[in-house]
Design a protein that fits this description.
Elements (H helix, E strand, L loop, with lengths): L11 H14 L2 H19 L4 H9 L1 H4 L2 H12 L1 H4 L13 H11 L1 H21 L8 H24 L5 H17 L14 E3 L6 E4 L4 H23 L3 H21 L3
Antiparallel strand pairs: 1-2
Helix pairs in contact: 1-7, 2-5, 2-8, 3-8, 5-9, 5-10, 7-11, 8-9, 9-11, 11-12
Length: 264
């Protein structure tokens, strides 16, 4: 007997996204990751570590806390139905697989916006307190929140293509190692998921300037990577994969263009 798939109901995507956003934000790993960020931000406020620490706290700390945890959390949320053995039961439901994946990707904006708010508030405090030698631009502040969306999109993509247990954990470790390797190459840090713009001086709190490169180009590069992960997740679930593939190819162009534009 064939299974009847429910017709698309576009109005369901925002409603499902609100539910998934709540699940994602309440996930213990996400709470722990944001908690670590708040803790470290509080330490930076109480103990002035100099302009390099202030800049680094708002430009890149989000990419590690909670960014690295969001890969696993988003993956666990996306594989929840599969691990419960209920994914096939949802086929006749109004929310098709494609709509559920779209909802998960839309829900990924929740931690992204939360990260942007937190960074903006901390940045405002640092400005008022005169912590910066050179104030970060909007693009420096935006890169961290963008990586939060990318972490979620990566976790969702892995859930669609490699739903086996442990895949997201391996991806977390691989991302850290990849970023460390790229950081050791000339201009390589610009192509990593975690970009720290201040250059380390002789002492930890010395200000030695900013890493050469264009922050806006780096954000465009990150947006391209996010689009690649999101379309890779969606093409697996889509009934009409061709338009998704076209959009995915466009995101590759965006990533390449941003990657070249960011170079000094």
């Amino acid at each position: 007997m064939s299974v009847i798939t429910a017709p698309p109901v576009r109005s369901l995507v925002p409603a499902l996204a609100r539910q998934e956003a709540g699940r994602l934000l309440r996930h213990p790993l996400v709470l722990f990751g944001f908690g670590l960020w708040v803790w470290n931000a509080g330490l930076a406020i109480v103990d002035d570590g100099g302009p390099r620490e202030a800049f680094q706290t708002v430009d890149s700390m989000l990419s590690f806390f909670p960014g690295i945890f969001l890969i696993l959390a988003a993956n666990l949320v996306a594989t929840r139905d599969g691990r419960a053995g209920s994914r096939e039961l949802l086929t006749p439901a109004p929310g098709r697989l494609e709509e559920r994946v779209k909802a998960l990707l839309l829900a990924s904006l929740a931690p992204t916006l939360l990260g942007l708010v937190l960074v903006s508030v901390l940045h405002g405090y640092f400005l008022l307190d005169g912590r910066y030698e050179v104030a970060p631009t909007f693009w420096h502040l935006l890169q961290g929140p963008v990586t939060l969306f990318g972490a979620c999109a990566l976790g969702i993509m892995l859930a669609e293509w490699l739903p086996a247990r442990g895949t997201a954990v391996i991806a977390m470790v691989a991302m850290v190692l990849l970023n460390a390797w790229l950081g050791g190459l000339e201009d390589g840090m610009l192509f990593g998921p975690l970009m720290t713009w201040p250059i380390w001086g002789v002492l930890a709190d010395d200000w030695a300037g900013l890493f050469p490169g264009d922050a806006w180009g780096h954000v465009v590069y990150l947006v391209g990577l996010c689009g690649m992960a999101a379309t890779a997740a969606l093409v697996r679930a889509s009934d009409r994969p061709r338009p998704v593939v076209v959009v995915g190819l466009l995101t590759v162009v965006v990533a390449v263009a941003g990657g070249l534009a960011q170079l000094p």
